[in-house]
Design brief:
Structural class of chain A: alpha/beta
Number of helices of chain A: 11
Number of helices of chain B: 13
Helix content of chain B: 25-40%
Structural class of chain B: alpha/beta
CATH superfamily of the largest domain in chain B: Metal-dependent hydrolases
Largest sheet of chain A: 5 strands, parallel
Helix content of chain A: 25-40%
Radius of gyration of chain B: 21 Å
Radius of gyration of chain A: 19 Å
CATH architecture of the largest domain in chain B: Alpha-Beta Barrel
Shape of chain B: globular
CATH topology of the largest domain in chain B: TIM Barrel
Number of strands of chain B: 18
Oligomer: heterodimer
Shape of chain A: globular
Chain lengths: ~300, ~425
């Protein structure tokens, strides 16, 4: 199968076959990172722009390492250093970047739909590294890879996603990604953090964390941001961790071989107890390792081959 | 000079409906007669307009437009806005006060009227602010504003959050016989919302605005209207709950009237799909259930008026991330055609449509309007059969922010006459 997508914008626009191809490619890429010399010439002469309008450490570093392991030249632009602070519009900035002929622009932006706007404006491939509350496809793909690697399959698993679903692009992308690959997704959190109509994405909803954890194969905890308190979404961190946090005790309701995930950064003692985050069931660190592999695969698939631009 | 509008179906809701000839002399209607009954001056020297097969109505009135002068003339001037109105079949518009400077004092009102006079196209009735700077902190000088020519007061765009101020505004305006137009929105409930709350917003990762953000304030303002006995007009109704609240209030005899805009009875939140900023507005496009409720409100008379909320914006405000794109769309040049779709679908009759776009707004605003002997000839001629595709590039408006570009339409104004002067003739 040949990969013909110009852009990686969201999980909705990827087919099961495309996701499988990305995961298989990532699995091959992972091996490169284990070599003593972690570099292959595959993307030599290619230019990758890492355009991070919203601050990010993990995702940007992951993309940067991925590009360098494939011998691509990567250039980082941050929102505060870019022309955007001088009043240039996103579209103008994008057109200027395009004029310098990069092969891929990886973009993180605080507003939903920003990558879509960019993809419509420029011919360069766009990889969405997170747009507002909307989508974070590379995170979802690395989560799928991590689950497949550890469980041998995705289909038929029960995935519990717990926390602030409303503000989470990771949750949205994973609901779509995991259900597309045949898993059942159950969401839990306080009703203030469950957005209207989320079940139309194919997940079921409960306000009781114990119900969500019950028989789960995977428990994915989401970060609770302190500023949501000011938006009246929860009372106190104390009550949140008591009612919605993942503790060893609460994990007992899950399957014996349950695995714990978290997109990071972790709020120890709030949404997840330290002994759970560090415990034997945690694959949080595997997620980060696989992040590099998935991003190598995506850069390779979008910048590597001869892509037929007219195909999409 | 004599002018004869000949052979059209003259509809002046509650007054006239029939094939008639209208004779105009020096800008005034001098005779209205059944066709063939011998209107004076059939001979030479009379300019005759053949209206056979067409509908002749009192000039359309759009009681909710934003012309951007003074302050943002690159989006729309009073002159271009008036031209857009004329092309849409309107003979009069009410301009909202959120200009820069705000129309919160008589000098700005006079400036707007002076510019409108120079444009010499359609009649402009400025709506002044409820509070200085639209800040919701006090009352403007309504007496002064009324003397300068203001027809109503509104903090449109900036809802009056202070209920005591809203009560006072209603009472104080009542003393001057001024109408209060309310933009109903609870800003705390809107917070970071940029579109309707629901599955579409959730999927797109956009902040949602719940229906209650509008209806809660509709209900508050109805309560204040009952308390004060003042005249209240609810702007751009978009939700089922608002329609219900207004219907119930009218049954109780409250002096409340309401308008909706063509986009609320034509589009739903689905139009936002693909982060289409042309479909971003406030209140937002709602669900289909709300759209149906608005249609029902139009049909049973709960909603008195169709007004466009014509809100010109340039690409500077619209070709940006959805979250920061400006709210609003232009409407003057598509409103009548979208209204005629309701007639074609049988939601309302052509008579209802003309009432909601002409005589009802006139009545609410206290304007003496209609096809009557001795009145100024403010007349619109509508061809209901003509089909066309909307071409925003050809609009008279300076702005192009419409989601209706390229739409198939049937029916539009072919002649707009203000005080006997033809401002649109095609």
């Amino acid at each position: 199968m040949q990969f013909s997508k110009k852009d990686i914008l969201d999980m909705e626009s990827l087919s099961v076959d495309e996701i499988t191809l990305i995961l298989n490619t990532a699995q091959q890429m992972k091996e490169i990172s284990k070599r003593p010399v972690k570099k292959v010439p595959t993307l030599r002469g290619k230019t990758i722009v890492l355009f991070f309008y919203e601050p990010s450490t993990r995702t940007r570093t992951s993309f940067d390492i991925a590009a360098k392991r494939l011998s691509a030249d990567s250039i980082s632009i941050s929102g505060s250093a870019s022309s955007l602070v001088k009043g240039e519009t996103l579209i103008d900035t994008a057109r200027n970047l395009e004029a310098m002929n990069p092969d891929v622009i990886v973009m993180r932006h605080s507003m939903a739909g920003a990558s879509h706007m960019l993809a419509k404006t420029v011919k360069t491939s766009i990889i969405n590294a997170g747009d507002g509350m909307h989508s974070h496809p590379t995170q979802s793909l690395l989560d799928l890879m991590t689950v497949r690697e550890n469980k041998g399959r995705i289909s038929g698993l029960r995935i519990a996603i717990i926390g602030d679903i409303s503000h989470s692009r990771v949750a949205r992308s994973n609901i779509i990604g995991f259900t597309k690959m045949g898993a059942d997704v159950v969401l839990a959190g306080p009703p203030t953090m469950i957005p209207k109509g989320i079940e139309t994405l194919g997940a079921s909803v409960t306000y009781n964390v114990n119900d969500a954890v019950c028989n789960a194969d995977i428990i994915m905890m989401l970060r609770i941001q302190k500023e949501r308190q000011k938006g009246f979404l929860f009372s106190t961190e104390r009550e949140y961790s008591k009612v919605y946090g993942l503790t060893m005790e609460r994990m007992k309701g899950a399957k014996k071989d349950v695995l714990i995930m978290h997109p990071g950064p972790v709020n120890r003692g709030v949404e997840i107890a330290p002994e759970v985050a560090d415990g034997p069931y945690s694959i949080i660190i595997d997620q980060v390792t696989n992040g590099v592999a998935v991003r190598m695969a995506l850069l390779y698939l979008t910048a590597g081959g001869v892509r037929n631009v007219d195909a999409d | 000079m004599l002018m004869l509008i000949k052979g059209g179906r003259v509809i002046d809701p509650g007054n006239l409906d029939g094939i008639m000839d209208i004779l105009i002399e020096d800008g005034k209607i001098v005779e209205i007669k059944e066709q063939g009954s011998g209107v004076r001056g059939q001979g030479s020297g009379v300019k005759t307009i053949d209206a056979s097969g067409k509908i002749v109505t009192p000039g359309l009135i759009d009681m909710h437009v934003h012309f951007r002068e003074p302050g943002h003339e690159y989006k729309e001037t009073i002159e271009t806005g008036c031209m857009a109105a004329a092309f849409g079949g309107f003979t009069a518009v009410c301009t909202m006060p959120n200009t820069n400077p705000v129309n919160d004092n008589s000098q700005v009102t006079e400036y707007i009227l002076k510019k409108a006079g120079l444009a010499d196209t359609v009649r402009v009735y400025p709506v002044a602010a409820i509070s200085p700077g639209l800040q919701g902190k006090g009352l403007c000088e309504y007496g002064d504003l009324k003397n300068a020519g203001a027809i109503a007061v509104s903090d449109d765009g900036n809802p009056v959050t202070d209920s005591r101020l809203m009560r006072s505004a209603l009472e104080y305006a009542k003393g001057f016989g001024l109408l209060v137009i309310s933009h109903c929105e609870d800003l705390d409930l809107t917070v970071n919302g940029v579109m309707n709350e629901g599955a579409v917003a959730t999927r797109m990762g956009l902040g949602g605005i719940p229906n209650a953000a509008e209806s809660i304030m509709v209900m508050r303002d109805i309560a204040l209207c009952e308390l004060t006995g003042a005249s209240l007009h609810i702007a751009h109704v978009s939700t089922l709950e608002s329609v219900r609240a207004i219907r119930d209030a009218k049954i109780r005899g409250v002096r409340v009237t309401a308008e909706t805009a063509p986009h609320y009875f034509t589009l739903t939140e689905d139009a936002v799909t693909g982060y289409n900023t042309k479909a971003k507005m406030n209140p937002p496009l709602r669900s289909d259930r709300d759209r149906e409720a608005v249609l029902e409100g139009l049909s049973d008379g709960t909603i008195d008026v169709i007004a466009t909320d014509h809100a010109p914006h340039s690409s500077i405000e619209k070709d940006v991330e959805f979250d920061i794109a400006a709210n609003g769309m232009i409407g003057l040049e598509t409103s009548l055609s979208l209204g005629l779709k309701l007639v074609e679908k049988g939601v309302i009759t052509i008579i209802d449509l003309i009432a909601k776009m002409s005589t009802n707004p006139a009545c609410i605003l206290g304007l003496d309007h209609g096809i009557k002997k001795g009145k100024p000839a403010d007349i619109t001629i509508i061809d209901t059969d003509i089909t066309y595709n909307v071409d925003a590039a050809g609009f008279q408006s300076l702005s192009r922010n419409t989601p209706f570009d390229g739409w198939n339409m049937k029916g539009k104004a072919v002649l707009t006459m203000v005080g006997g002067k033809v401002v649109l003739g095609r």
